[in-house]
Amino acid sequence: xxxxxxxxxxxxxxxxxxxxxxxxxxxxxxxxxxxxxxxxxxxxxxxxxxxxxxxxxxxxxxxxxxxxxxxxxxxxxxxxxxxxxxxxxxxxxxxxxxxxxxxxxxxxxxxxxxxxxxxxxxxxxxxxxxxxxxxxxxxxxxxxxxxxxxxxxxxxxxxxxxxxxxxxxxxxxxxxxxxxxxxxxxxxxxxxxxxxxxxxxxxxxxxxxxxxxxxxxxxxxxxxxxxxxxxxxxxxxxxxxxxxxxxxxxxxxxxxxxxxxxxxxxxxxxxxxxxxxxxxxxxxxxxxxxxxxxxxxxxxxxxxxxxxxxxxxxxxxxxxxxxxxxxxxxxxxxxxxxxxxxxxxxxxxxxxxxxxxxxxxxxxxxxxxxxxxxxxxxxxxxxxxxxxxxxxxxxxxxxxxxxxxxxxxxxxxxxxxxxxxxxxxxxxxxxxxxxxxxxxxxxxxxxxxxxxxxxxxxxxxxxxxxxxxxxxxxxxxxxxxx
Length: 482
Known about the structure:
Number of helices: 16
Radius of gyration: 25 Å
Structural class: alpha+beta
Largest sheet: 7 strands, mixed
Distance between the termini: 24 Å
Helix content: 25-40%
């Protein structure tokens, strides 16, 4: 969150004053790290200036450019940039940087290519909610998301009273330093899902995969339903056509509206395996009739493999190399257990899972309340599902922690909405911890640096509570918050 004292220290420092001066008279070539010639930058600048002379609606310059298209002439060639062929990695960075140079009070240079998770983290740090995510197939809405992000940030800029150049230094230099230094829990939960993704010869995928080490981390196209700790089977597309390795996800799958494939995940902890070719899969008793194999592995990126599929793959790996230890590979954990098998409503999750869990943690009737009435301004009332009272405080709206319950959280968009709701309650109630629970698991977010972060959590499946070590680990987390 914004702290005027810390900001002023930064602003008066050598690095801070330098960053502010940089954004006051920004050289696009500098922020774009010399990826573009000055001639190409000038060609874009001229084309944008000509097109924006006709813009009818102040504040919609970006989407106007894409909807109408703007002609660029460079080195004797002319072409039109429009919403149908807008390049994510090239045009987006350049156009948004030039828009900032022309309208610094309305836009920001977009420097979050393939790392929108850092942008989400910055918003979390500032306790700002992300705009509602657009649908995958609506490209105009996806590009419009940039304008909405700019709107959220510049509204905040005006609220805290910073000039445009100060605010750019604030969100692109000062805040990332603090947000990156915020502790992120590095332990991985047991994997609940197995996904298959592909790498191809274009874009350097093969070279990257061959050179990857155990600690290598990369973004990859993935399924938005992926959860931190999941298993990822990496398949090399033609001309290799074989399974190359097995990885783990270190983030939940998340949506990047500006990324062509829409959803990403970060992977690491590579385990190289004996090569299983597409020919091997076609002749295997299990995979020969598998829908994905029958489609020649078309559309494999983010395809969920069943536990039976994964066990069959492990069997094939052992058959390829009798010395290969499949027991060293990650094993999936099923979140399904008897209590959650047939739950159909949020209230059933509360009665059959959450409330017994609360009692098992040693909390009595005087320690917690359900549907607590919370005033959120302008007379509006909200009702956090479970709050845990701070008996050491005389303040009415001060709680130790809270639990927000959902029936089932299936993917990033669901989780982002639940998190934003729980965070707003947690900040209003001065909580040390917020928890988000559904029929499968509970995720704990501890307050750090004055806020809560989506990517800083510990996840526990309900069917793990029978393990005494896991049970005590959760209890210690809640004891700290008491």
